């Protein structure tokens, strides 16, 4: 069974940067698919709120899509041979504090911002922005 593992979270000060990683580990995805068959999306969640879309990247990395709240401050990229997607976050603000989750799904449209309950999800990594 494939697992998605997020890493890179931690405590940062406003204005600083942080790079999150999402790595797929395990044997194979369902139906023999590989990591490069999946669109990867990042979501974030704060207590008492629903998960909010952050960014998405297409299967080959050619297309990306960002939430307005992070556009210009966040860059999503992927390295398929390493089964890894990165989320580079710059100029962090207190409102970026959240648990960040990555998810893999088969919907090809990177502009879909709702979570896919049938996709693969990681356990999340906490990012706390505080002075």
Q: How do the helices and strands line up, and which of them pair or pack?
A:
Elements: E1 3-7, E2 10-12, E3 18-25, E4 39-45, E5 52-57, E6 64-66, E7 74-79, E8 84-89, E9 98-105, E10 120-121, E11 125-129
Parallel strand pairs: 2-11
Antiparallel strand pairs: 1-3, 3-8, 4-5, 4-9, 5-6, 7-8, 9-10, 9-11
Structural class: mainly beta
Low-confidence stretches: none
Amount of beta strand: over 45%
- Rg, rounded, reads 14 Å
Written as H for each helix and E for each strand, in order along the chain, the element string is EEEEEEEEEEE
The backbone outline, from C-alpha atoms, is globular
Main sheet properties: 7 strands, mixed
- Helical content (DSSP H or I, runs of 4+): under 10%
Distance between the termini: 40 Å
Helices, by number, come to: 0
- Which assembly state applies to the chains in this document? single chain
**Number of beta-strand segments:** 11
Q: What would the average pLDDT be, to the nearest integer? A: 95
Please tell me about this protein's structure.
- The protein has no helices and 11 strands.
- Strands 2, 4, 5, 6, 9, 10 and 11 form a 7-stranded mixed sheet that branches.
- By secondary structure, it is mainly β.
Brief digest:
The protein has 131 residues and is mainly beta.
Keywords:
seven-stranded mixed β-sheet; 131 residues; mainly beta; 11 strands; 0% helix; four-stranded antiparallel β-sheet
């Amino acid at each position: 069974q494939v697992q998605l593992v997020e890493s890179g979270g931690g405590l940062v000060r406003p204005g600083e940067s942080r790079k999150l990683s999402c790595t797929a580990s395990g044997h194979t995805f369902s139906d023999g698919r590989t990591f490069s068959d999946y669109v990867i999306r990042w979501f974030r969640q704060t207590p008492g709120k629903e998960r909010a879309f952050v960014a998405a990247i297409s299967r080959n990395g050619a297309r990306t899509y960002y939430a307005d709240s992070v556009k210009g401050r966040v860059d999503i990229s992927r390295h398929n041979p390493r089964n890894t997607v990165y989320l580079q976050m710059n100029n962090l603000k207190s409102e970026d504090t959240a648990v960040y989750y990555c998810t893999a799904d088969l919907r090809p449209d990177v502009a879909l911002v709702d979570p896919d309950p049938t996709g693969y999800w990681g356990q999340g990594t906490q990012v706390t922005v505080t002075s």
